[in-house]
Amino acid sequence: QVQLVESGGGLVQAGGSLRLSCVASTNIFSNNGMAWYRQAPGKQREWVAILISGGGTVYADSVKGRFTISRDNAKDTTVYLQMNSLKPEDTAVYFCQTVQRGQNYWGQGTQVTVSS
After folding, report:
1. 45-102, pLDDT tens digit by residue?
2. CA distance 17 to 28
3. Strand pairing of 18-24 and 78-83?
4. Whole-number Cα distances in Å, 33 to 22, 75, 87, 100
């Protein structure tokens, strides 16, 4: 079992920044990586970004150039999502996700609200 805990969400004005954190209960990079998803009210959950164990990153077009996914190099359990130039359409609950040994794990989510 892997537990994931997100933090760092909050209320911010458009153009502002937030940094989300996701802490796993175990080393996640020895087997795989970590992804961030988000779900806005009334919408399906959508993929935002992924950081793979080799260090590569991929972003959804909607956040490319504004969001950065990274890991804590001192720990194999923590991933960040730096969100800059936030827009009202970024408002959502943000979840971290990982697949470990064939099992899919999700955190409980952290709310991000961007006011116009």
Report:
1. 999 999 988 889 999 999 999 999 999 888 889 999 999 999 999 999 999 999 988 9
2. 26
3. antiparallel
4. 12, 13, 27, 9
